[in-house]
Design a protein that fits this description.
UraD-like; 2-oxo-4-hydroxy-4-carboxy-5-ureidoimidazoline decarboxylase activity; 2-oxo-4-hydroxy-4-carboxy-5-ureidoimidazoline decarboxylase; 9 helices; mainly alpha; purine metabolism; EC 4.1.1.97
Amino acid sequence: MPATLSALAAFNAAPAGQAEEELRACCASTAFAARVAAGRPYGDLAGLLAAAEAAAGALAWPDVLEALAAHPRIGERPAGAGREAAWSRQEQSGVGDDLRAALAEGNRAYEARFGHVYLVCATGLGGAELLARLRERLGNDEERERAAVRGELAKITRLRLVKLMGGGE
């Protein structure tokens, strides 16, 4: 049985609390984890990913803020030994020391403007591109920025679910 199918079978068979804990490593919203876990069993990865996308899209803003609280600032090295911290370090591997100060300044401006951490799917992006996106998004109004945050959260969640199901560490 391929790794993804065996991981999915184990996820489907796990007690609800364990499944929700695994899902919170992908998206730290309690509502997200409960909704996706309640939809088990999933026949394939595509079904799980579709359910996760629907659950992420249905999150109330306070649930999005709960998920954001678990994300480190872009450019900061996440602490901790858990799966989510390791994934964050990997996702932000393109940020070099030369841009950390500029990103820290941008993060402060963003948080002052929007009241929460700046979220971007950093996988595959270099520090300069991350900084450019941050600066661009500082020009968004509240509604447009919330839509951007939801989109980035969905991308990150999808990537992490694929990793959780054995599609790469």
